[in-house]
Structure formats: C-alpha cells, structure tokens
Specification:
Blueprint: E1 2-6, E2 13-17, H1 19-35, E3 38-42, E4 59-60, E5 63-67
Antiparallel strand pairs: 1-2, 1-4, 3-5
C-alpha cells in the first residue's frame, strides 16, 4: 500500500507505506535509476485510492511522477 497526501498546510506531502509499499517503492526507485528513466504512480494502480490520514483537510494525491536525474 502506497498513499501520498498533501498535508493541511498545502506545503508538505505525507507518504504512507505498509511493508509491501516500502518494497514496491524501492523497486520503482531501483528501476528508474538502472534505466535512467521515470515512473508514474497512479491512484487505483500503484497508489491507494483512499486517504490514510485522519486529517480532514489533507488531500489525496492521485498521480506521482518520479524522475531520475543524472
């Protein structure tokens, strides 16, 4: 499980991961590094579609693009 949320201040991002999510995120990072590439994480696929935070003013992020820069 991987969830990204914009916090209530709208200036920070909170990342929620379970054990499988940690392994998945590490895999995505290793992929983009070894392929000098980027990867899209989308709600309903790589990202969970529900909030984890109990803060009502946080916002669920539905798309994350991770880009490797040399």
């Amino acid at each position: 499980m991987i969830t990204f949320e914009v916090d209530s201040s709208k200036q920070g991002v909170e990342i929620f991961l379970d054990s499988n999510g940690v392994d998945e995120l590490i895999g995505y990072l290793q992929y983009i590094k070894s392929n000098n590439d980027h990867f899209h994480l989308n709600a309903g696929n790589e990202l969970q579609e529900k909030k984890e935070s109990s803060d009502a003013s946080s916002t669920l992020v539905k798309h994350v693009k991770i880009v490797y820069l040399e």
